[in-house]
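Researcher: Please predict.
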Amino acid sequence: MLSGSRITTVRRLTLVIVLLAISACTDPVAESTLQRSRDIPKWYDDAKLGIFIHWGPASVPAFAFGPPLRPGELEDILFYDSPREEMPYAEWYLNAMNYPGSETARHHAATYGDAPYSDFQPTFERRVNQGWDPDTWADLFSRAGAKYVVLVTKHHDGYTLWPSAATNPHRQNWGSTRDMVGELAEAVRARGMRFGTYYSTGLDWSFQMVTDGDMIRDILLSAPGNQAYADYTYEHMVELIDRYQPDLLWADIGYPSKGRQGELFDYYFTQVPDGTVNDRWGAVDVLGQIARIPGATWVLKALGRLLLTSESDPLVDDPARFGYKTAEYDSLPGTPAFKWESTRGLGGSFAFNAAETAADMLTPADLVDYLVDTVAKNGNVLINVGPDSYGYIPDIQQAPLLGLGEWLSINGEAIYATRPWSRFKNLRGRELRYTQSDTALYAIVIGAVEQSFTIEQPGITSSSIEVLGAEVVRTQDHDGLLTLTLSKPLMSPAAVVRFNVP
């Protein structure tokens, strides 16, 4: 039996071998470029709240099967034996409908017969032209308190939301003739928000899609590894930069190993000096080449399990990571020194799933809790909306966003432009989350508060104490606790106590 130290050595050696295999097949990125990608601009750190938008031909069938992902379940699906046979994401409809026997395949056959996925394109485009108003979206996002917006410009199905000059060699005219990206960018920026672009860099099912039955192997084998796709992706990314000057580039499922990533980053940061990028730029297509070796998928899964169960601390930074770290339907257990972003849908899907009801959505209180917890841990929240195929954001999605915006209109100073404190939560008493500015420490009390309530005394010197949205009538210190009496109870999702520092 291997000792603990030998197991750790084997894990590290295996990881080194895989990383060497990837790096040997990947376009080099200069150390200075890597470091620039990790230099997070102040606007992004200050913003705290962004809106993600998944929208496209998959919004026509608007179907996904299964409950929302639990925290950490995405890793279970990829590396363990998960009972899920398909992702609960409506934007994965094209993929899921090609798994024989899947709920999506059965739904598609019953609803659309043998019609191909491409038949949804003309319906989507006709409906968009009938009903979509980008200004209505931008107004909603502004009222929700968002400071940046990220639009999915191309998801894994390969359909582009702008009239690209780059021709898809496998599917003619597989993209919009209307510049939805440009229209939304203009509307968002007119309201003082930043605009970013998501682009599915690692997958494009119009180029390559494998549905043999093992989800992780199928994803890896579906990542195009040829020069043609690498050039296509690079051309698209440069086009997005040139046309829209995106404040943020959001990659997904890796970037082509032959796609001149270093050159792309250098160009982007030259064109958009205060731009930023996320962390999903790894060479997944190289792992796909490895996965073609008989038995290699098992080894890759085993490696993933080893890394997940190793002694590594998720709050310790990875110096090789590009951009800021992302977490999907997940969080971090504490406050890292590095910047990160948590993203999820308001319900279980990113794109519109017509089967979801109000009971499947986050409530306004849930959304406030999510934002407060994430910001206290040095993160941003990128909350997703899934408009229907006419471009309407359903009322059940608007309600939590507007509830969050109402709370932020009173308590936003405890969120925007703040930084984490020495600890993110209380040590005793009522549940709190802490943030700080140059002039104050904010104790955000989770849940509504009565006219008199008690929290822990944070142990700092303060010149005065305020509660946002109410007048403090009396304070009383006792045994390390602080009781505040207000002019009225606050029935909002959270109350903010402001300790003014001298």
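Model: The first strand starts at residue 49 and ends at 53.
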